[in-house]
Amino acid sequence: MGEHKLEDEELLRRIAEKDLQAFRQLVERHNIFVFTTCCNLIGDFHQAEEAAQDVFLQIYRSAGSFRKESKVSTWIYRIAVNRSLNTLRRSKRSRWLESLSTLKKEEAGGEEPGRLLETEEMEEFLKRALDFLPEKQKAAFVLHKYNGLSPGEIAEILGVSPNTVEVRLHRAKKNLQKYIVPRLKKTF
Amino acid sequence: MKKKEMNPECRKVEENLVDLVEGNIPEFRQREIQKHLESCPQCGRLADRFDRLWQEFSKRDLVSPSASFWENLFCSIQADERPYFWGLFISGMKHSFRPAAIIFLLLLGLFFGYYLGDIPGGSEKAISEEVFIDQYVQDFQDFPQGSVSDFYLKYEIQVKDQTS
Ligand SMILES: [Zn+2]
Asked: B122 partner at 20 to 30 Å CA-CA among A143, A150, B96, B137?
């Protein structure tokens, strides 16, 4: 993060003048980070791709309104987090229905993390564990664990203090523990 | 059925698994827990499985979007630009509308003026010189016999008959 600061600003200035070459450079530089964020927050590849497209579209449209109050990358990742959380909120109802069927499946003993450790379904189990988190904790956890950002960097993106990020991270971990432990114990 | 009371040491392990696997526990506490894990197979197994599961969170790589990501984005940009183009077109039209309308009306006036100028007015028929001689002059018999006018008229009719 930050190593392309000047270049990013220059690219953004050109994008404001509808320079597609500059836009492509910016997309190529940040699309993996943006997509990883969307993917892990939303938990669905296709929805994440749609969200990431929207993120860059928004950047293209509002490049001229960038106020230089933060790094370009921070601004981009903030848009990515907000867009992903919006998608999450929109699909809350469908995810709630999905979680009901998951619960029934778990009650029937159809899903065991102990067994899942050896299977591809591990991904699905971790995804569900993340879905268990409130969105603010989830955002902090994903940016920290999957995107490898420090609490300071996450704080800039989320627009909160580093201390708040630390608290959210701590709560996220404790909540994940609450979700995982009883399910692990069931397999003994 | 009364719930089985949990061993306080086992509870401590269970409540501190995340801190334990992330190494966020003071060293003396860590040693205590480690000692319990060795003596309690249940907690030992739980800690081991939790650790393996937890590592999965950190093992995840960054994810790349599909190969057509840029292509799709480019299409969206183009679709986005279209209203912008038409917006420019319309605003351009607004500025140049008055002179364009004036020129258009002028051309329209010229065209109709030219076209209307070629059409005979009212119920009058456009008659060529030829038709005039055929239809009117031949029937004109009012000149006195042998006069210059009579002679000229007969001469004209004669020439006309010869040429046709
Ligand atoms: Zn124990």
From this structure: B137
